[in-house]
Write a structure and sequence with these properties.
The structure holds 2 protein chains of 2 kinds. By secondary structure, chain A is mainly alpha-helical. Chain A contains 7 helices and 3 strands, in the order αααβββαααα. In chain A, a hairpin with a 5-residue loop joins strand 2 and strand 3. The two termini of chain B are 32 Å apart. The model of chain B has no long low-confidence stretch (mean pLDDT 94). The chains are: A mainly alpha, B alpha/beta.
Amino acid sequence: MPAGLTDRMSVLRYASAMYPTKLNNIINLFETLPEDERRETLVSYADNAKKQEPREDEKFELVDVRKDEDCTDTVGVYLHVDENGKAHIRMTLGPEVQTLTRSMTAILCKGLEGSTPQEILDLPSDFVTRIVGSELVRVRSQTIYYVLTRIKSICKVYLDRQRMAQVA
Amino acid sequence: MHPTEYAHPEALVETDWLEKHLNDDGIRIVESNEDILLYDTGHIPGAVHIDWRADLQDPVIRDYISPEKFARLCSRHGIAPETTCIFYGDKANWWACYALWAFRLFGHDKVKILNGGRDKWKAEHRPMTREVPKYPETNYPVPKKRFDKEIRAFFDEALTQSKGGKPLIDVRSPGEYKGEITHMPEYPQEGVLRGGHIPGAKSMPWKTATNDDATFKPADELAKIYLEQCGVKPGTDTIVYCRIGERSSHTWFVLTYLLGLDNVRNYDGSWTEWGNKVGAPIEKA
């Protein structure tokens, strides 16, 4: 953050500029909610996580479906980058995936829709706590960062392949 | 000759029984989970939510809430000293057993576990609701003491147990016991500097006590596991531990209520204390 940004409003304005507009709107919504409504909204997003699954007619440049040690069940990430260089992400979640991880899946798929892979890769992760709130962020729920990490990971593979193709 | 019945069968309720007694006076159904938003997504009708971290643990010091806060927590949920609390939750009742154990720390003895927990209830398509119940507030008296000495072990006691060659059961995964990993598979690191186990501890992962549907195994099988394989004996002090005390609460419940052993204590400091403690002896593999 640039030196001299000391008052809260300046810091928030600077931070907002770093996020894609759709994601920023979601962050702003959560920050206005009292704790009980924040929980309700997170559950509502979790309920909608299934809507982020790939549709039958969709094609993807990259697919990364795996079960790894950082999450309780299989998570699939599907990336399509359109002719304008905008990313469209779909995700599948196994039944054991925790509620907060489901919430973050729906939030990120919606919030990052239409961003470029590079914008996603450059995204700082500090917004996650602004959405989830301090009461729900715990050592054991650090998996809330897992979905963002997986999305960034597929974007990085995509960009690396693009660079390699350009060099070749 | 192993027992064919649980020592305290009254400490368990079955899903079928609970569905028929949801509205009974004198009971309170309590959900406690690993997944902190799971209760919000739907729960057994009438169940209240107790969050193992926010409700049972002190927010600053690594310890449990004060007796005053425990009394307020119970009062808020309409729990009186004579209320029978029936605990259930995800992960085959890890946190349900932990919450039950914490209630016992404060002397609340009328406690039961829903056999099979939340997963079995849901798998059987029993009723769920998102409606959060409201109960008339009670005036739960502030407990005069905490029963740490009876059912809780601290570092020094676990060390004495280890040096004395008395039963210690490590209920973590085999990889954690051997020191190959310092956290559960599929879970984030919880900050421990050394891997391994307390010298002399026997490895018996908590899951050994459960069937595939998260219910507890029959008494004779549990006796084989803990009395024969772990060398636990009635009348002998036994200490169980895991990483932060929740999986070992499950084993503590099995030993105390299902096998009826008297002197079982849960070392809730567990590996996150032992594995970080300067100079604490460690065995690997």
